[in-house]
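This section describes the prediction task in plain terms. A model, or a person checking by hand, is given the sequence of a single protein chain and must write out its three-dimensional structure as a string of tokens. No templates, partner chains or ligands are provided. The sample shown here is typical of the held-out split.
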Amino acid sequence: MQRTGRFYCQMSMKISTAALLPAFILPILFLSSCTTRDIFRSPYTNQQNSYHVMPLLSDEKKTANYLTASATLGGSNDYLTDEVYIFQGKWHVSHQFGSRIQGYFGLHGSAGLYDISSNAYSTNDYDPATGQPIEFNGPKGNKFTGSFGSTAGLAVVIPLGNRAEWRVFGLESSIGREWGDYYKARRSLPDSVIDIADRRNTHLTLGGFTEWVFKPRNPDIRFGYQLAIGSSLHRLRNDVNGFYNFTPFYINNTFHFTVRRTTGIIRFAAGNYFGAVQTGFSYRL
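The expected answer:
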């Protein structure tokens, strides 16, 4: 079956949990036209680079180890019609190099569910004998997904008076190995009936970030904001129809609040055909 068309905008579609995302990140998610597409990409291009806590330049301790647990709730595919639920555990160590450079290295593991929408694979092709729509009976419903890998980063930091520090520019990178039912489902989808399916299970990303950390008079409290932008190092394409191709990117807005050893984190993640909210906490060992 050759795929030729999709539902139009005015037709009703499933409302995913990603509709709860703040309006300021939604416009960059919908990079399609007024018709919908089938985009089965891996969530880990956006999931791997979660936030990494680092000590301040003014902290007495220059090296610290952290354990992090987080949960991600979001959507993927065109119009975010597929729901994504992922839990992540992570260890990382942060170290200060000299007076202005900070860095980190970590290991991460993720597990969760990717819910393929019941509206997937619908086309505008009709059987000439019966007049009925021709549907591709592809995988649907909840599919287990998992990943493990590592992350690393460096940042140039300057103090802003006595109450703030600015990580002016940082580089972050990640590598992850994916497995599970959702990865197997993507491998089984032919390019003739969908627009994009990411058939890789190794995901490499590279990005940059800037961050502000504020410390009030209470030495046990600090809070901050980080903006990170990056992308995958491989391009997704449809080998049957070369018109459909893109490189997965991410934009992460992270807000964090620390009390003594514990840091609470909320991150608003966006990318092409992806949007999510991640919440969690890090504990300094």
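For orientation: Residues 1-35 have pLDDT under 50 and may be disordered.
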